[in-house]
Design brief:
The protein has four helices and seven strands; from the N terminus they run βαββαβββαβα. The protein has 144 residues and is α/β, with parallel strands linked by helices. The protein has helices at 13-21, 65-73, 114-117, 129-143, and strands at residues 3-6, 29-32, 51-55, 76-84, 90-98, 101-107, 121-124. Helix content is 26%, strand content 29%. The radius of gyration is 19 Å and the shape is elongated.
Amino acid sequence: MHCISLGSSGVGKTHLQSQVSELIPEEDKVEITVLSANAFYYFNRTELQHKLILIEDLDGAESVLYPLRELQSKKRITKTVVHKDTKGTTKTIHLTVEGPVSVAGCTTQESIYEDNSNRNFLLYIDESEQQDQKIMDCQRLISA
């Protein structure tokens, strides 16, 4: 199961994801703030297998959305690269990372690229004044 939380900056998307992630044992999740373009290919082969991947800000993760989609759908990604050994000899190697994985992320974008959105539950954060009032009432009750 995969989900993306969508909403304006400062409405609590990351807080919500953080609170839910506290219910998940540390060994079953990987929390990521920022990813480089090839980051997913350099995890150990089974390091992400059966893990919940929590991405704090999908807005800065456009370059990893393709391998992430492949991990979600095909449950495996492979990248072929040239590697130079200690003797200076080059050879082609395959970097493979196995799933399945579960993914959760947050974004301020109003819509998500269809190939990403159709693999996820989209959670739109309630930004109404009524919701703000409910939150403030709850906070007052807790502090009383």
